[in-house]
Amino acid sequence: MHHALFISEVCREICGLLEQSSLPALARTCRALQEPALDELWKDLYSIHPFLQLLTQSWCEDANFAECNQTAAQRPTPSQWDTLRKYSERTRSLYMCIIDDPPTTSSDYLSALFNPPNSPSFFPNLRALAWYPTNHEEMLPFLRLLCGPSLTQLSAEFTNDPASVVMLASLGALCPNIADISISADNATISAELTDALSASVCQWNDLKQVSCDDLNLPALEHLSRTRGLESLTAYASDHMSSFSHPDGVRGTYFSRLQRLHLYAVQLSNATSCFKGMHLALEQFRLDVFDADEILSTSSFLQNFFATLAGHCSQYTLTELDFCIIHSELPSSATVNTLRDINPLLSFRNLRAVRFEGLTTLSLDDSDITELASMWPCIEELSLSTYVNHPVASLPTFHSLIHLIQTCPRLRALSLVVDTTGVSESLCHALRDGVHSDILHELCLGNSPINSPTVVAHVLQTLYPSLKLVDLSVWNKEPLSRLPTRAPCERRWGTVNIKLQTLRAATQQESIVCHSVTSTDGDQSPIH
To answer: For a Cys-Cys bond, which of 90, 107, 272, 479 suits 42, CB 3.0-4.6 Å?
Structure first.
């Protein structure tokens, strides 16, 4: 519904643009499209306000102005219920992520709306529900009224209180056909009571395909492991998850069809222990680690984790790998991770995307990049580093970029800190040979050392003709945002981008001129 014009005004504008003879055809078309248009209009809602507006509008039409401005809500009349149902039956998804503006969403109004006569639910055909209210306690009773057997997708946030525990425990009975569930706690810490309540409901759902929960107890994990349709799991690497394992030496068939696994872990060792006894055939894996102390203190934790992942995940199915340190820190001068620490990942030959974020201790040189490229020839997205401690860590050079172009022809996004300070004779020879990639459109070079922005811009424009700009957004994130040398380094890379734009504009102008000359020559007739 248009926010500036009434429907009648919109119709008048449309009719005013048509010939009179076309109006009957327009009327027939509008009548034919009325129901499909209403279905589409009310199918996906991002608030319950449209129904509340219908309700208050009906009250205002049936009452005087003073009554209309009263905050107390009246129960709709039968005719008003018919009008509301005309639209609510069309709703398939409801995303209640922002609930505000009392008294419009006061309990009086919602009570009137969510108690339809002779009907178990105001939204009988609701399939998907996202529930993230700001006023949890007031709105929780109405969540129960939205739940029903038609619901297959539920994403919700709960507080750690007794009412939420009761509600979570009853979800299995209220919504028996859930296939996609995502539950979190509002303060990012789920209580044991909430975990047990949620787990009780999870154990009642046999058709789950996607599950995202802060924590689950052992019975719920056992149930999920036997759910043959489960394709995606997002979970916290808790004690429950870590203890969910088979005896040593026994390979289980748990999670036989799981394709996507996303783990959150306080420490890397917590995530490592989650793989004990399991053998997975994942396509995508992501790990978010909150505490980087283990990784910054010794490289063995990183190597142990990747070795465990390689030992318990099929080397043929994994195509995407994400490793993220949430609270990234500037490493001490003695902390370095080398290719040896991530070497177990080279066994995954079919990787299409490898994304490291916040791993500030990685040290790679040209020979390391050559080995990585040879083992991942199908790579399309490669993000290895955005920060490197130059005095301690080794750095690849422009030769690594050239080798990636030659070895990984599908690479379209690259994030790598390189040493751009030297342009050797062999590099110039490679550039003269026409080595370039037309498909790489995203390039992030982090805190790569740079002396001559103009030279670097010319090299990048030659290597990547389709590249518009070097991505500098990482300078607004940790740890680069706290780097003492941020200002001068970021300024030099800003100059590179300015030069890239100039070179790109010049290239485009040359192309236009050449095309114009060619067209002119082709139009000229030969003289006999």
So the answer is: 90
Taking the C-alpha atoms of residue 287 and residue 285, their distance in angstroms, rounded to an integer, is 7
Burial class (CB in 10 A: 0-12, 13-18, 19+), 151: buried
C-alpha 78/C-alpha 76 separation (Å) is 7
State phi, psi for 163 to the nearest 5 degrees: -65, -40
**What's CA 66's distance to the chain center, in Å?**
48
Q: What is the DSSP letter of 397?
A: B
Q: Could you tell me the two tokens for 86?
A: 């005309």
Please answer whether residues 303 and 269 qualify as being in contact, where contact means their C-beta atoms are separated by less than 8 angstroms: no
Break the chain into its structural domains and give their ranges.
Answer: 1-42
Strands (E), 159-205: 180-185
Spatial CA neighbour of 215 closest among 251, 245, 243, 247 = 243
Single-letter residue type at 158: F
Name the one residue in this structure whose structure tokens are 């037309």: 438
pLDDT tens sequence across 339-364? 999 999 999 999 999 999 988 778 99
Count CB atoms within 10 A of the CB of residue 35: 10
The whole-model pTM stands at: 0.84
pLDDT band at 518 (very low <50, low <70, confident <90, very high): low
- Measured in residues, the chain has a length of 528
Per-residue pLDDT tens digits for 82-98: 888 888 899 999 987 65
d(CA 168, CA 325) in angstroms, rounded, equals: 31
Instruction: List the one residue out of 84, 177, 80 whose CA is nearest residue 128.
Output: 177
Question: Which of the four pLDDT bands, split at 50, 70 and 90, describes residue 497?
Answer: very high
Angle at 106 between CA 103 and CA 109, to 5 degrees: 100
Full DSSP string of 334-392: T--B-HHHHGGGGG-TT-SEEEEES-TTB---HHHHHHHHHH-TT-SEEE--S---TTT
